[in-house]
Structure formats: C-alpha cells, structure tokens
DNA sequence: CAGTTTATGTCAGCATTGTTGACATTCCAA
DNA sequence: TTGGAATGTCAACAATGCTGACATAAACTG
C-alpha cells in the first residue's frame, strides 16, 4: 500500500502512476478547500444561531420542494433523529413548512416558507460567489476535471442522488 | 445575485458565463464528494472510538513532525481548546508524543509514536485508495483541474498552509 | 376483516467536537 | 524587574452526530 506507487501493474495497463505524495496533495487540497467552501455560509449562520445542518436541510428542501423527511435524510447521510432536531427548529422559526402527506399520512412533505427561501438564497449566494470566483480563476477546462474527480469520489448512492438532482432541474 | 448569470460584465471581459445552476452543481458535488472522501477513515475510526478530529491531528503531525500545538491549530482551523482535548486523548493512548519545547518551554513539540504512525498509515491508506480510484476514473487532465479549482476555493491562509506543506516534502 | 409486521416520524439521552472563559507558565520588552 | 503577550491546559456549554423507545399509519397475512 505504501510503496509510493499506484497503477494496475508493471506498465502498459494504465498511464497513471500516482505517488503517495501526489495523492496526499489531493487529500489535503480537499480538506483545505472544504474549509473555504463552508466558511461564508458559516459566518452568516453563526449570526442567526443556526449551523451547517440547517443550511444543508434548507438547501435540499429548496431543491426538491415537497420532499419527505425520509428522502432528505438519505441525501444528507444522517439519521432521522439528527435531522429531526434541525427540522423542528426550522419549522418553529417559520422557515420550513411541514405538511402531513396526502397520499401517505405517515410522511411529512417539506417546503420552504417565504422567509426560508429568503435565507436559503442569502446562504447560497454567499457560496456561489466563492464558487464562481474559484471557477473563473481556475478556468473552464479545470471545472470539467473538478466535477469529474468529485463525482468519482462519491459513494455510489450519493452519485445516484447527485444525478437525480441534476436531472430534476431539467 | 440571482439572475442566473455570472460574468464580469455584459461580454468580452470574460469567456466564462456560469449559470446559478452550474454553480449549484459544483456546490452539491463538493458536498457529496466530501462524504465519500471521509467515509473510509470514518469507518476505521469508529471501531477505535476516535473521530475525524483525531485523524486530522495525526495526519498533520505525521506530515510535520515536531510541529507545535499553535501551528497545528492554525492549520486545522479550530480553537486550541478543541484541539487540546483530542491531543490529550492521543497522548494518553500512546499515539502521540508531546515534548516540552527546548527553545521555548511554553511550546509543545508533537510527534507520532510508532503506534501512532501505524494508525495514521492505516487511515491514510484507506483514503488514498479512494483518491487513487477517483483519479484513475477521471483521468490525468481532470486531476489538474481538480487541484486548480480546489486551490482557488481555499481561504488565503489555507492556501499558504497548503503551499508550505507541499514545499516541506521537497 | 383482525392481527401482526413494517415504515415513518418524534422524543429523550449520550458522545464527539466545536465554542468561550479562566488560568498557569514562560517569554519578552520597557 | 515587572507588566504584558504568547502558549498551552482545564472546565463548562452548544451544535450535531448517534442509539433506543415509542406513536401512528400503512401494508401484509391468515
């Protein structure tokens, strides 16, 4: 594992020879970049006594209005109990509307209220500004590669969720 | 902010026109990919009653042996109190060695013990395997773009830390 | 159709890891 | 040498993971 090399065999099979050092750079880049990625919304959230968990919930409710708790937690990769706490706060504060399902009354369909949409917008805007700046700085070809590697890094079910979301917005 | 367009002006200045939708895909890719990125070490850590914080500390101590608490917390972006709790556990468990600084006795120089190196290796290996697979799947050109965008996404001080680490390993 | 099982969501309590505040020790500068 | 700054530790609190217990609704089974 730690011979500092990677590749399928002695040669020929793959053109990629990745040293442990190269891989470590990628790992560290991922770590540092994620800090920047979340920094701007985090600052806004801190003012409002909310956290990242609230942001994530609002993001995906906005993305798929009417989604259920069950669906949401599979996307977020947390337990329903953990998500529940966050949703309760958002509902109490009037940012999320939770309606008993019409077809299946066990389910709750989730929607952002006007105020919820407003905050989500504010958070997304902050995050998009950084994303846009990074994309511009890196250039168009880089963006392709960026997305490719990220997608390849996802677990299978997350890759599916990701594809579903993209297709959902036409 | 939300006109679905991005660019410096009406045209000509930039060749990149990024819709909010494109940016959102990047944001979601980042979120889902980070889950995958941390999933494998997380599984190992859970067995050992450690968390991500322990992994991060061990990673950077391994990367820069003899580093101080102060330096470490600036890299990790957490408070010294938060880091301290994690370090205390690692020292007690014999994975990290904390030596009073020779030049400045207020400082503590941190080193992995043999057992610490062993666990760090195990965690890194798991993470590298996924990274390597993602790189291979995405291809060499993609890797360049990936790193470029990530670096552009970092906060300035993290970009500096990232550069320092790379240079430190020749 | 009655009774049991499964699915969905809520409430309670615990663990990890972030935070701030108070403090001891050491260094440095006036 | 004395007061302030820097470094690190200890304590207590908050956010957000987790598991377990439970209520309700739906679905299945005989």
From TrEMBL, chains A, B:
Any matching Pfam family: MarR_2
Gene Ontology terms describing biological process: response to stress
GO molecular function: DNA binding; DNA-binding transcription factor activity
Record key words, sorted: DNA-binding, Transcription, Transcription regulation
Entry superkingdom: Bacteria
InterPro entries named among the record's database cross-references: HTH_MarR-typ (IPR000835), MarR/SlyA-like (IPR039422), Tscrpt_reg_MarR-type_CS (IPR023187), WH-like_DNA-bd_sf (IPR036388), WH_DNA-bd_sf (IPR036390)
Residues of the HTH marR-type domain: 20-155
The keyword tRNA-binding is assigned to this record: no
The protein's name: MarR family protein
């Amino acid at each position: 594992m730690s011979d500092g090399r990677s590749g399928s065999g002695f040669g020929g099979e793959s053109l990629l020879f990745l040293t442990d050092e190269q891989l470590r750079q990628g790992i560290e880049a991922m770590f540092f970049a994620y800090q920047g990625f979340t920094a701007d919304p985090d600052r806004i959230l801190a003012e409002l006594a909310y956290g990242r968990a609230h942001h994530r919930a609002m993001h995906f409710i906005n993305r798929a209005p009417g989604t259920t708790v069950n669906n949401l937690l599979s996307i977020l990769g947390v337990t329903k109990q953990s998500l529940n706490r966050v949703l309760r706060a958002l509902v109490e504060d009037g940012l999320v509307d939770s309606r008993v399902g019409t077809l299946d009354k066990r389910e709750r369909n989730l929607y952002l209220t006007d105020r919820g949409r407003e905050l989500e917008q504010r958070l997304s805007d902050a995050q998009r500004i950084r994303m846009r700046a990074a994309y511009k700085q890196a250039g168009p070809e880089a963006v392709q590669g960026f997305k490719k590697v990220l997608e390849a890094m996802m677990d299978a079910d997350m890759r599916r969720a990701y594809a579903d979301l993209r297709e959902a917005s036409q």
